[in-house]
Amino acid sequence: MTEQPPSRQTQRIDKWLWHARIFKTRSIAQKQITTGKIRVDKEKISNCSRKIIASNVLTITLQRDIKIIEVIGFAKKRGPYSDAQLLYNDLSPPKLEKQKQEQTKESMSRIQSDGRPTKHQRKQIVAMKRNSSE
Q1: What whole-number distance in Å separates Cα of residue 106 and Cα of residue 91?
Q2: Number of C-alpha atoms within 13 angstroms, CB side, residue 29?
Q3: Residue 111's pLDDT is what?
Q4: Which domain holds residue 115?
């Protein structure tokens, strides 16, 4: 097979998603494509054999996240994560939910409790509730 110039290289999308380590297995990538959770340049695709080129923008819907990825290059075989990161440019916006979760974790760590109330404390709580309802 002749080597194509870098601007004309193409690769199947399921294979590229697996090489780029977006999905753990190629069959998972194929399932995500056929269920319509992958878009190429804002166009929903359902064909696993769809060829992609460099500069395509992929929108990938994951469980609790949406990734926007620009294809930069291709690989002949699946390599380590550090090599896979060189295949794409992540255009996803920063995650605000993680920041909120970290803030709530910090505030929860500041609240210290003595654990469960003792029997005496529970009786006092019950008495206060009775008095407030009367």
Answers
A1: 29
A2: 19
A3: 53
A4: 6-133
